[in-house]
Amino acid sequence: MHRPALTAVLLPLAFAAGSCRAHESGLPAVYEEIQVPARELASPDIQRQGRVIYRERCLACHGEHADGKGSLGGALRPPPTDLTDSAWQARTDERHVYYAIAEGGHGKPMPPWKATLSPGEIWSLVAYIRTLVAPPAAAAGAPAAAGTSHLGRAGQQ
Questions:
Q1: pTM of the predicted protein model
Q2: Among 62, 92, 113, 134, which is disulfide-ready with 138 (CB 3.0 to 4.6 Å)?
Q3: Which of 21-30 are b and which e, b meaning 16 or more Cβ less than 10 Å from the residue's Cβ?
């Protein structure tokens, strides 16, 4: 095939592929535009609600320590996300966490929860998941602050 002919075929395909993207974030438009309830995410009550839902719905796969090593997690490929991983937490914003819970883990065995959990329940899970990273001092090897646990700053077991 000659270069001009190849360009004539590939150039329209490139424009078509580019126009299919929702946003640079990789999220569908509906999730990109969703309002993050920042005040609620910081609420200890909302975080505790998220912890209860986590223990009911997520623990079997993500594990007691939220490290992806639940009783069912070992059989899953790819394995469940380690929600305590500070690098994952740093690169994953609240909208992406919400999207993963609501829609499931595209290419991963995580089921979609949007038919089972309300938007408020999903946000409470997001709030709880954000508590799972150790504060910087604990991450650097210093003893954890009083009231913290392996399940995060919300601390109740």
A1: 0.72
A2: 134
A3: eeeeeebeee
Task: Give me 87's structure tokens.
Answer: 């690098």
The domains located in the chain, with CATH, are 25-139 (1.10.760.10)
Cα(35)–Cα(87) distance, integer angstroms: 24
- Residue of 44, 32, 9, 3 lying closest to 130 (CA atoms): 44
Of 93, 109, 119, the C-alpha closest to 23 is 93
Q: Of 63, 25, 35, whose CA–CA distance to 126 is shortest? A: 35
Give the tokens for residue 38: 């920042």
At residue 7, φ and ψ (nearest 5 deg) are -60, -40
The pLDDT tens digits of the residues spanning 111-153 come to: 999 999 999 999 999 999 999 986 554 444 544 433 333 344 3
